[in-house]
Each structure stands twice: as C-alpha cells, then as structure tokens.
Amino acid sequence: RAAGGPRSLGLGAALLYAGHSVVLGGLTTNTEILFAPMVVGTFALALWRGPEWPRLLGMGVLIGLALTIKPVVTPEGCLAFALLAWPTLQARRWGRLFAMAGAYLVLCLLPTLLVAGLYALRGEFGDWLESSILAPFQYASEGAPAEVVRHRVSLILLEMHWLFVLPIPALLLRRHLSPVLRHLTWFGFAWFAVAVLAVAVPGHYFDHYFLILLPPLVLLSAVGIFGAATYASPVRGPLLAGGVVVAMMLDPFLFDLRKRIMPGLHLGLPDTPTRIADAIRAEMRPGDVVFVANSQPVIYFLTGSPLPTRFPFPAHLTGAFGDLAGVNMDAELARVLATRPRFIVQDIQHWYGVRPEARALIAASLDAEYEPMAPFGNPHGPVMIHRLREGN
C-alpha cells in the first residue's frame, strides 16, 4: 500500500501471511514472528512518499528494536536504507547521504546500547557481551553439515511449495502488469534475496528461520495471483484472485490441522504446555520448584515456579548449544538437579536432542529419586512429568 499498490493486493498478501504463519513454528513466539512487523514497517516507511528524515527516524527505531531481538535483520535493514537513500545517491548529495547514514546507524544501535548500559549498571556487562554479541558469532561458526542443510531446505521447499510457485506469474507476465506492480515485483525479489541471506548466515537452517522469507514471498505471491487473474479475465480477475488467495490461505492451515488431529482429537482442549502446567499446579505446594529438562520453557511461567537456573532455555542448559554462554553447563545442570526440584518435565520425542552428558545426569537423578506421572500426548510426541518421590 505504501508503494501505491491496490488495497486488494495488500489484503491478499496479509491473508497469505496469516495462513502460512501457522507452519514452521510460526504459532510460537519465535524471534522471526516477533521482529516481522518491525521489518515490514521499516520497508513501508522506506517506500512511502514524504519527507526523508521523519521516515528515517521511524526506520531506525524499528530496525534498532528488531536488532535487540535478533541480529539477522541486518541485511533487510540495509536494503531498507538503500531504498530510502537511493534518490539522494542519484542526486549525488554526498553530505546529506553521509548524514542520513550516520543517523540511521546511531538509531539502529541505540536500543542495543541502552540494553548494554543497563547490564553495565548491574555489573553484568560481561555476561551480556558473551551471550548477546560473542555467542551468535560462535553459533554461526558451528553451522550444520551440508547433508543436514540439504535435508532441511528440501523439507522447507515442500512445506512452502505454493509460495515458491505463485510468484512465477509475476515474472512471466511482468510486461502486462501495471507500473506499480512491476516495481513491487522487483522490490519483492530484492527483499527475498536479502531475506535468504538472513536465513543462511546463522548456518543451521532450522524451520523457524524460514519465517523470515514469508513477508517477501507472500507479497510476490499476491502480485503473481492478481497479475495472472487480471490477465486471464480483466472483468472477473479480482474475484478469481480472491478465491485463489482464500484457497492458498487454507492450504497450510489444513496441513497443520491434520498434524494436530493425527495423535488424537484434541481440538478444543488447552495446548500441551497448559495441560502440563495444570497437572503440576494441582499438586504443587508452596516453595515447590519445576525443572523443564527439554520441553517448553513457558511451563515455568504457567506454573508460577521460580526459575531453578538463569538458563531456562533447554537448548542451552541441556541441548547442543551449551557452549555458547561461556559457562560449564554440565556443572550448572548438576547444581540444578542437586537442589532436587519437585517436578521434572521431559519431552520423550525430543530426548535425542539432549547432549549425552546431560542425558546421563538427568537419567541418573530420575532413576534415583523420581517417579513418573501420566504422560501428555501432543502432535510431536509424549511429554512426561516426573515427581520427586515422597521421603526423598
């Protein structure tokens, strides 16, 4: 809409986004879902017609906030600035260009610097530097093997197949599109290119990383749908395009619904973490502590349990990324288990993702002091609650 496109096109892209955000982990609060509105808002400001400096201010603030969530938005932030600054570059107004670049850089860094300052005031700047600045570089340097990357990318292409097919008409029919739609097509492909870079840089290619591709892909898909429909039927084109959009919106929703029904008809019931938390709360006594070994950390919040560790994300404490925080995670895990939490939550299906040393520590503690409660079924496999035996 900011680029001058029709309202129906914007609504179509929004519906496609809503439908496809139910897959690839989009229903959980993954970082890609959190910063998506900030990135899309930044591009809207970059494309909007109006004074440059107010738009630059808004763009810098939005990208700055997104950077505090995850630094992978950097390529998209750079493209947004390039779009805004292109007329100034064409006019060779070098002083204005460098002033804009400097201001944008400061605005983008400011939220991160404020967070760093808060940690420094608490005397914990070193912890912040290790976990927020150095750890991502180490994480990216330990990328997944090539065969794992090929497998994960292949699955993503299959799961998002329509979003890779629907933009094709936008290219094939570009000469028959209106000038606005042609510009949106080239912009969409430029956005897609930098989004691919953002997905690839961490080197691990987990499903939720590909949520970064959704905004440019749904834009390109909407242009392809409306462009093809209008070319096929100038009169009934918008109606035809609307029907295709609705069908494409429902496709991923029904695919996700099938996975949820497969283990049993749980529709209408609370989700698995809520049911687990309810079962724990029914037996909790004042002062009881829950330890989530490798399941959803939100269980801590839902049960009201005090955190047994300052590393509540299982991938760090018990998973494969324990070396990123600069702390001996085996020692930290042993300390947590030594406090004998009243409940331990174990995701059976994903137990393979716990590193061997952590598996051994947890298994020894469970065998010695805990008894299992009823398992909870969910679309990804059973989750077990272990309760401390009475008298231990």
Number of helices: 17
Share of helix among residues? 55-70%
Shape: globular
Major beta-sheet overview: 4 strands, mixed
Strand order of the largest sheet: 1-2-4-3
Cα(first) to Cα(last) distance is 64 Å
The number of distinct β-strands equals: 4
Which value, in Å, is the CA radius of gyration? Answer: 24 Å
Could you spell the SSE succession in H and E letters? HHHHHHHHHHHHHEHHHEHEE
Low-confidence stretches: none
Average residue pLDDT: 88
What portion of the residues fall into strands of 2 or more residues? Answer: under 5%
Helix-and-strand structural type? mainly alpha
Task: Explain this structure.
- With 392 residues, the protein is mainly α.
- The protein is built from 17 helices and 4 strands.
- The chain has helices spanning 7-20, 31-47, 52-69, 74-90, 94-121, 125-141, 146-159, 161-165, 168-172, 179-200, 214-232, 237-261, 272-281, 298-303, 314-317, 329-338, 356-369, and strands at residues 290-292, 343-347, 370-372, 383-388.
- The protein has a 4-stranded mixed sheet.
- Helix 10 (179-200) packs antiparallel against helix 11 (214-232).
- The longest helix has 28 residues, at 94-121.
- The chain starts with 6 loop residues before the first helix and ends with a strand.
